[in-house]
Amino acid sequence: MTKSAYALPFGRVGTARCAVQHAWPRLGLTAFLGRLTRLGHRSAMSLPVALLLLAPVAHAGLQRYRDLVVADQSANERAPSHRIRITYLGVNGYQFEAGSHALLIDPYFTRASLWRISTNQTLTPDPARIATGLSHVRPRVDAILVTHGHFDHLLDVSPIARKTGAKIVGSPTVANLVRATGLARGQCSVVKPGDRRTIGPWKITVLPSAHDHVLGSTPYPGTLARVPPLPERPNDWKLGEPLAFVIEANGRRIYLDSGGTPGVLPTGAGRIDLAILGVALPDSRQRYPAAVRALEPRYVLPSHQDDFFAPAARGFTFGKMTNFPAIRRMHTEERLPGRLILLDYFRPWTYLKRQARRNCAIAATHGLIETTRRSPRSDSIRTAGAIHCELLRRPKGNQQKPSSRTISNPRRTSLRRRER
Fold first, then answer.
1. Which of 150, 222, 234, 324 is the most buried (most CB within 10 A)?
2. What is the pTM of this model?
3. Using CA atoms, how far apart are residues 228 and 283, in angstroms rounded to an integer?
């Protein structure tokens, strides 16, 4: 069947696309999909078909948001043993490093085309793209955490686990799907909300989560109580039981999920330094302010918002159903806690490097700091030398507190102190 003849219950793709191109700019995604629902097209408008229709609609890359992108000066630096280094692998995939240890979350490098997914064609891992992706990953990995069973989170996990020796941590459905690919039972660790695991330096707490809805339904729903036949098509990768994780190492605590709904907010996470929140679809964006307030993190990293149907080699491009301008606007206008940041593909960022703390201490000693309250747990620090860092500890005892005014001429201030 040719692309032009791919039939839908409400007409051919060409006709539907024409309607989308006229209605989408006026209504916006959420209102447009809602109108289709009221017209009775819920059965036709699954997530893949919605993406197919919206294929001409795309967003730019990270150029507009360079002020939000954080990265180490050199990607070749050794991961510090006293900090956590984070590398964005695309989609909702991450590598966390602590010294000689590494942890992966939802690695997906195959990035099958939109047409292949929308038409539910045969889907297999791409060895060449996986090899390219793994060139940015440690040769040995402690574990791979999987948030749920969809192909864009789980398809590549089995071959990656075989190459890195990683143990897979996920729900019962996730474990049964990877075992269907031939992975041994002993390489899977089945978890549920409330469970805790310690793997190397990583202390992992499992929390409940939810998957976004599209037109009132969940894409590829279902759970698997036993090992199924080998998954061959996108709809074979069942959602399963969505999970979120709190990952702790070196005194830092990171919350991560792949999205959610307003009815399921993160609870019981405790103190969070970095919140990685999936924002791919309208449901997860609607719950974003409440989720950030519930976590009160120092940093907030919106995730799962790139176009994962395009090869990573093309560079970061926002997905067709994402809306990062709305996320940024909400974060600013509602004065949400935490600093909003972004990561680019394969550019590591070391969370709160020791050098930043040393710069803060030096600047505080010379009275060059101006502090401004930004969130319940963090102070934004700005110095005359353009040092941007986080004030981790307040002065104790008779230590001098940071000045609350901007010092435009440090030398003149020093002279004034001597005169006194």
1. 150
2. 0.76
3. 30
